[in-house]
């Protein structure tokens, strides 16, 4: 199994189960050899010191060390966790089982992490967006983007989209939202955001109401923050032609219906944000082989997987005459069902 561990105040068993199921379909769509898993601790990591986080992580690992394993269940970082968290898990797990770098992914590079893993989800979002726009005879350049969320995924996506000629007109994070119709200077914003722990107060753009970020005028909207942000309250107001779901489950089912009636094309999360788990797979493969790749190989392989993934989803859409979300789920469920039947597990 594969899935992230999140440290967040709202973690509960229902959310963890839902996200684990989502991972089952996501790994199937990405065509990597895992089932889905998820874990978490209900806490506010921002309120905890580094040593408190370390103790929390190590005790958690002591409780789950016989549930995870290189060929059983391989965790990764999620909201509120990072490579350092993975390093603590690896170290604690290794006390029980001997040094096993492949037991977690998203590790620091010095401990067997993969080059390119940090940017992987954001880079996957770039490749997914390119694949979708190409379908409509467009490319990244000259499109106007709005990105909600400027954490790992949002900031990398912003950086890579800008490098490919896209214009980012609005960005938001927990501190606030900013807008500049001529395009935000992303390298400057990254520097500002690092120094000030958020986008608020950035001089190269105007402050706007964070609630309005999703309805700003743009061609491509990228929700890269929390789930459930696009709902029946704001779906009618959305001006984007394309929505790329970099977050998990950002669009609720009611909004889905409203948007598809409006002709908005939604690239679903289980495909759009699968770059992270795909490079996690590459990291696991490298650890098992004991042979590390250079960054170029990681990025090339990721592009191959994302491009093939889009093609597979599109085939499903054509076969079943359905939208991209239904196509992606059908592809995922189909692959799981075929494996189930082949192993003789069917009821």
From TrEMBL:
* Biological process per Gene Ontology, one example term: L-glutamate catabolic process
Q: Which Pfam families match?
A: ELFV_dehydrog, ELFV_dehydrog_N
Catalyzed reactions per annotation? L-glutamate + NADP(+) + H2O = 2-oxoglutarate + NH4(+) + NADPH + H(+); L-glutamate + NAD(+) + H2O = 2-oxoglutarate + NH4(+) + NADH + H(+)
All copies of the Glutamate/phenylalanine/leucine/valine/L-tryptophan dehydrogenase C-terminal domain together span: 114-344
Q: Where does substrate bind?
A: 2, 26, 280
Marked site positions, Important for catalysis: 78
Q: Which residues form the active site?
A: 38 (proton donor)
Keywords, in A-Z order: NAD, Nucleotide-binding, Oxidoreductase
UniProt binding sites for NAD(+): 121, 152
Query: Which domain of life, per UniProt?
Result: Eukaryota
Q: Which CDD domains match?
A: NAD_bind_1_Glu_DH
Q: Which GO terms describe its cellular component?
A: mitochondrion
MF terms from GO for this chain are: glutamate dehydrogenase (NAD+) activity; nucleotide binding
Family (UniProt) = Belongs to the Glu/Leu/Phe/Val dehydrogenases family.
Could you identify this protein by its name? Answer: Glutamate dehydrogenase
Recall the taxonomic lineage recorded for the source organism: Eukaryota, Viridiplantae, Streptophyta, Embryophyta, Tracheophyta
